[in-house]
Write a structure and sequence with these properties.
Blueprint (H helix, E strand, L loop, with lengths): L2 E7 L5 E6 L5 E2 L6 E2 L3 E5 L3 H15 L4 E4 L1 H4 L3 H13 L15 E6 L2 E10 L17 E8 L4
Parallel strand pairs: 6-9
Antiparallel strand pairs: 1-2, 1-5, 3-4, 7-8, 8-9
Length: 152
C-alpha cells in the first residue's frame, strides 16, 4: 500500500506533519480547520507506523473512527468535559513506558487531581469482533474511548 508523509500549514500558524495512505486533507490540531497538504513525500510504513498515524488522526481530529466517552466523563460539567476532550486531542507525551509499541493507543493525564485515560480499540466493520488488521482502515472500525481512570 502506498504511504505518504504530508506537511500542512494552517493560516492560524500551526505546522504539522502526518502520515496517511492518501494525499487527503487533514484537520488542524489547533483550530480544527480543514487544510490541504502543502508538501509530501512517499514513504513505506510498517504496521505500527500505520496504526500510530490512524490513531493520531482519530484522536486529534475526532474523525476516522468512533469516539465515545464513559458515563463518568459525560456527567462532568461542560467546561471540564471540554477540557478532557481537548487534552485528549493534544496529548503528545508518548514514551517507551506508556507506548511500548509506538502506536499511540493509550494515554493518561490529570485535571484538578482527577486522572483520565483515553484508549483506542480496533473492531471489524460489523463491530462484533476484533479487527484482523488494525493497520487496514478498510477492515477496521477504530474506537477511541475517553474515560475517568476509576472507570477503567
Amino acid at each position: 500500500m502506498p504511504w505518504f508523509r504530508k506537511h500542512h500549514t494552517c493560516p492560524c500558524g500551526t505546522n504539522w506533519w502526518d502520515e496517511w495512505d492518501c494525499l487527503c486533507n487533514d484537520r488542524c490540531p489547533n483550530c480544527n480547520a480543514e487544510i490541504e497538504p502543502d508538501d509530501h513525500e512517499a514513504i513505506e510504513g510498517d504496521a505500527s507506523a500505520v496504526i500510530r498515524t490512524l490513531n493520531d488522526r482519530l484522536r486529534k481530529s475526532l474523525t476516522g473512527g468512533r469516539v465515545v466517552m464513559t458515563a463518568g466523563v459525560s456527567a462532568l460539567p461542560e467546561d471540564v468535559r471540554a477540557r478532557v476532550i481537548e487534552l485528549t486531542r493534544t496529548f503528545d507525551e508518548f514514551t517507551p513506558d506508556n507506548d511500548p509499541h509506538q502506536e499511540h493507543d493509550f494515554g493518561s493525564f490529570e485535571i484538578g487531581g482527577q486522572k483520565f485515560f483515553f484508549k483506542h480499540n480496533y473492531y471489524d466493520k460489523s463491530m462484533k469482533y476484533g479487527s484482523e488488521d488494525p493497520s487496514d482502515p478498510d477492515k477496521t472500525t477504530r474506537v477511541l474511548t475517553i474515560m475517568r481512570a476509576d472507570e477503567y
